[in-house]
Amino acid sequence: MIRLPVFLLLVARAVAAHAEIIVTDDTGATVRLAAPATRIVSLAPHITEALFAAGAGERIVGTVEYSDYPDAAKAIRRVGGYSKLDLEAVAALKPDLIIGWRSGNAGAHLEKLRSLGMPIYVTQPDRIEDIARSIEHYGRLAGSGAVADAVAQGFRARLAQLRARYGGRSPVRIFYQVWRSPLTTVSDKQIISDAIRLCGGKNVFGDLVGLAPNVSVEAVLASNPEAIVASGMGEERPEWLDDWRRWTQVTAVARGNLFFVPPSIIQRHTPRLLDGTERLCEHLETARKRR
Which of 151, 173, 185, 285 would suit a FRET pair with 35, their CA atoms being 20 to 30 Å apart? Predict the structure, then answer.
């Protein structure tokens, strides 16, 4: 005979196991799942990486090009690129959850998938701390909450340490270069600028409109940054970073403050962004020492 307290515990566990999952995404939309997702399609490389961090990697059945971290992500079926989705391929995977990227995926694509009755969670982490919340939500949606919550807690602790270490440093005016042609930077709305602020940097083009505005060489010269930081597309320092050496009147060039941070650790909204932030902070410390 089962004692009443034990019986009530078993009932509570059974109810919890079948409880509806309700999460609000970054657009304010409510996402409802009858049970944890087991067939997830990720529509951006950083989402794939964050899902693995949240303990839900084995539940991903489809993702997009350039989803290359961790190594296990490379074996997941592709459904096009984040900006050019193959909607038929997504639907064929019969996902019980799609996680999209507001500023990366076409809105029309997301609406089409939603019209087919597929649950969609849309993410847009514009601040570093948003990454922790995203991971927690992924854990809830995939039933890996214990893993996700631990990762989020560790992320917040490390973020607090970086802020305590670099938050009071003297400002360094920085030009952050995403690409050479067209010459592309980031505004203060982009998460990279949040990393710049954490390090005590001042984005010389922070007030521009859009997440990744184009600028001219003349505008960079006129802004006279104390440091130029480039990322590019690959893991190696881009050759075009040294193109700035011809402009010897720029403070960043005169002091040798031309720095590189690999894009995989500074341009993706994942726990590794703290690695890139720390690297950026170290570069700005070097710039301060060269004054």
Answer: 151
Q: What local confidence, expressed as pLDDT, does residue 236 receive?
A: 87
What token pair was written down for 206? 């922070």
pLDDT value of position 6: 55
Tabulate helix, strand, coil % of the chain (nearest 5). 45, 15, 40
- pLDDT, one tens digit per residue, over 189-203 is 999 999 999 999 999
Answer whether 15-156 and 169-289 agree in fold: yes
Long-range contacts of the stretch 59-66 (C-beta < 8 A, 24+): 59/142, 61/93, 61/95, 62/89, 62/90, 62/93, 62/95
List all residues 6 or more positions away from 72 whose beta carbon is below 8 Å from its beta carbon: 52, 57
The interaxial angle of helices 145-166 and 273-289, nearest 10 deg, is 10
**For the chain, what are the domain ranges?**
15-156, 169-289
pLDDT tens track for 229-258: 999 887 889 999 999 999 999 999 999 999
- Among residues 86, 93, 82, the alpha carbon closest in space to that of 37 is found at 93
Cα–Cα distance, 100 to 199 (Å, whole number): 29
179 closest CA partner among 251, 267, 256, 250 = 267
Question: Taking the model in full, what pTM does it have?
Answer: 0.90
Closest Cα to residue 16, out of 8, 25, 24, 6? 8
CATH top-level class of 15-156: alpha beta
Give the Å distances, CA to CA, from 180 to 185, 239, 264, 290: 9, 10, 18, 26
Q: What CATH number has the domain spanning 169-289?
A: 3.40.50.1980
CA distances (Å), origin 248, targets 29, 55, 252, 259: 51, 49, 9, 16
Residue 19: the pLDDT is: 82
Enter the tokens of residue 241.
């970073």
Which parts of the chain register pLDDT below 50? 8, 11-17
36 cis-preceded (ω within 30 degrees of 0):
no
